[in-house]
């Protein structure tokens, strides 16, 4: 399990605050923004209970009637679901069953019952540590202007967001919705201490079910100070939420899909991050059909990247030539105008959003693949499983792989280090068996291209959200969640500097994170676009010291030294492999500053508005 994310924030009840924001990291995502002590809110203050789900989630009919925090709660009738629980209660309470306790103690035990084991806490006034939750992943933050920048808002309006469950507890908000309709985040405000057990259970259930995503819980300070005897067996009041969850896919639709596949000559599977929990089913389906597999950026690892026969790696602007060729030529799953498109998605609002499919199936992909595999196995002789022989199509793609392999310049600039080579060597020295995190920029694309991800969830990146500075905090979360795994943050100097202060966290928590920074002294992706579109005119994309361009500035080695983290710098190609090996072999945290030329471009590249025919596969080095 990946860590939950927990935010704690102080507030002033008379101040209008910006909406709390959320962090994406790992498989499950839960934020709790708790108020630190500040001027008390009147117990008679009207506090609204809100629940607003966005377009891509399902509406839960919670009441919006103001209630006194100390008065009996009057609610409209809901569909009660007494037999549904979010997770088994495995914690041991520090209180007797009939002991009164504060709302804050109820909250702690509610989190324990949900399996929370680690909390990242930010110092706050008079904050007390829970002994049983002292190692529990979540993050806390007192309120300040920086709080709203502690994490990006939950992304849903982007090509493919990280889909991670998450809960947040912010300070009280005005009567207007906590989130706009563009940010589909389910949210609640606890208006009585007795609501806490139910609300926490509902939040975790919704965050984990359907399409995983963020939820937000607002618990005002005075509610946390009230006392109660908690009722842990309260039913969840989820209204029509469960009725809107995707049902198992229709066998009729699955059989129709198999017919379309059997009629195709050049099918392609295009898998995204929603398939991460269905990797085994996907691999079985590919084994039964022999269909090549291309991936989105977030889908890397769903299918083995080292599979040279059926794997096409990443599709898209910086995807492989042969993946984009396959989509261009495909007569079934593709974006090509002549293609027949089958779209399976757990979220009905995603279907047809970019291109109208010929056949759509709203279902959990795991259930859909299980159904497809069952049908295929029942129809075929074990010794001859393929309905259609796609070997000519695979042979055609092999020729494209031979003609347009992923490659890079190994002869120019003398002894200069190729960033692609650095990632290839990392893949070679680790056997493709580490967790990789990235920031945003050229290094992110090179990592996606040249590291072979063979299993789900060893690739943590912010996807279409484009959050620079994501790599190091993501590595911290992964290292806490998987203490026995090797975690490597492949970063760029520009992205790394956006959260460089977290080196202190790495050292204080003794996290064995390896940081390999591809340092070109520039915002590399910006430079690349300046080269393509602006005749290499630089618009503040140089990050070094203009008065002394020969020096490395800022000096990442000194940042590491200041946090007592071992570090090294490598500038020569011949020394690169040894430097990476030293990084991996050194116990604990380690920073490797890899100096690379800023002229290097991420290729292949399909220009914006272009097609496969416009793909750029080589470059003329600019300034």
UniProtKB/TrEMBL annotation:
Low complexity: bias regions: 141-151
What biological processes does GO assign it?
isoleucine biosynthetic process; L-valine biosynthetic process
Q: Which InterPro entries match?
A: AHAS_TPP (IPR039368), DHS-like_NAD/FAD-binding_dom (IPR029035), THDP-binding (IPR029061), Thiamin_PyroP_enz_cen_dom (IPR012000), TPP-bd_CS (IPR000399), TPP_enz (IPR045229), TPP_enzyme_TPP-bd (IPR011766)
Domain Thiamine pyrophosphate enzyme TPP-binding as annotated: residue spans: 439-594
Q: Which UniProt keywords apply?
A: Thiamine pyrophosphate
Keyword Cytoplasm recorded: no
Gene3D superfamilies tied to this protein: 3.40.50.970, TPP-binding domain (3.40.50.1220)
Give the compositionally biased regions (Pro residues): 152-175
GO MF annotations, alphabetized:
acetolactate synthase activity; flavin adenine dinucleotide binding; magnesium ion binding; thiamine pyrophosphate binding
- Top-level taxon: Eukaryota
| Family annotation (SUPFAM superfamilies) | DHS-like NAD/FAD-binding domain, Thiamin diphosphate-binding fold (THDP-binding)
Q: Where is this region: Disordered?
A: 61-101, 127-184
Q: Name one Pfam family in it.
A: TPP_enzyme_M
Task: Indicate, by first and last residue, each region the UniProt record lists as having compositional bias (Polar residues).
Answer: 82-94, 131-140
Q: Cofactors per UniProt?
A: thiamine diphosphate
Q: Which residues form the Thiamine pyrophosphate enzyme central domain?
A: 255-330, 333-372
Q: Which GO terms describe its cellular component?
A: acetolactate synthase complex
Question: Family per UniProt?
Answer: Belongs to the TPP enzyme family.
The name on file for this protein is Chlorsulfuron/imidazolinone resistant 1
**What organism does the UniProt record list as the source?**
Perilla frutescens var. hirtella
